[in-house]
Amino acid sequence: MSEATLGAMPFRVDNCSIERTLAVVGEKWTFLVLREAFGGVRRFADMQAATGAPRQVLSARLARLVDEGLLRKVPYREPGQRRRDEYRLTEMGRDLYPIMVALMHWGDRYRSGSDGPPVLLTHRDCGAPVEQHFRCAEGHEVAGPREVTPLPGPGARPAAPAAAPDRTTGAGPDGPPPHGGDTP
Amino acid sequence: MSEATLGAMPFRVDNCSIERTLAVVGEKWTFLVLREAFGGVRRFADMQAATGAPRQVLSARLARLVDEGLLRKVPYREPGQRRRDEYRLTEMGRDLYPIMVALMHWGDRYRSGSDGPPVLLTHRDCGAPVEQHFRCAEGHEVAGPREVTPLPGPGARPAAPAAAPDRTTGAGPDGPPPHGGDTP
DNA sequence: GAGCTAAGTCTATTTGACAGACTTAGATGA
DNA sequence: TCATCTAAGTCTGTCAAATAGACTTAGCTC
Fold first, then answer.
1. What is the CATH number of the domain that holds B91?
2. Does residue B178 lie within any of the structural domains?
3. Chain A nearest-CA residue for B94
4. Strand C within 7 A of B75 CB
5. Which domain holds residue B137?
6. For residue B169, is it within any domain?
7. Tens digits of per-residue pLDDT, A117-163?
């Protein structure tokens, strides 16, 4: 996380959580594997068919996700066949759900064309569409980035003495940036 | 979106919104550019310094994001210098905010180590930490994937006659898959 | 041992990232 | 007019990863 990310904050945060997450999942094939895992697909061949990933890529991604703790292997054996492993989400893996939903919703809104969304996520108990919302710990609704203030957390690190020039203050035709100076 | 994604649903959804979103943003450098854009970073050199992206990669990503409508160019001119362009988020770009927050929160939880999160997103008006929640259109809280049912939406397409084998029903040591059969 | 099936692994080719160097496009001043 | 400057690219050769297609592996069954 850059200095500029925190505007005039006297801290530099380059150990960015976003970047850490991206180091694990920040590329297409991994997301598609996770998408399938959330859908209950567990076997290599099914993953391969569903994602279209080249075998070598899929093999590498699955191994990586197991290594990082997002998936785990579970042995299975079809009658008359050898023992094999399936891949299942761990709790850590399941906690990627908000990311997957957010990706889907953005695509629904901006990339589904005149057809509309192919899948609707509905509340199991009442059938109404599911939405994502921001709320603060005090219970207030938070509408979006403009109502959010990023502050240094416990993992923040001190900045170098020379702060970067602040080039975010030019309120142009669209007003100030989403945040009063930064990151999501 | 694969058949298996919808379990026993007689529909196949391969025009997946997630995949469409990933086609635009599904790789590390693009996410990092967006992270900076949300933080108010607008200029090439600042983006480059903040993300560490090789120039050629950055240039290509910026051009792509402008082309896709997530960023737009705004001319600026420092005194004594030539006219140049900055890059700013469009509304479409800003609507990626939930994805960025979700990426951050996952990283906060699972990848920030003993230091804890470097950045805390707080509610501007009261200072309490901001959280993401699921809620249905009827106003019910939805706790996570197990309370979500994916249904075909207007953009769903009919399946091929032969449904794929259902291999998600084996309730193993961790119970059924996150969804009763599917995608986020 | 032969045949089978699913999960990989291998190989040559193509594509994209990368580091470093170089170019471009206006503004300014002599 | 030309030299200088600055920021935003673009170029080039090298390395890494994706890709398509083929091949191998590991148990089970007969």
1. 1.10.10.10
2. no
3. A178
4. no
5. 4-152
6. no
7. 999 999 999 999 999 999 999 999 999 999 999 999 888 876 544 44
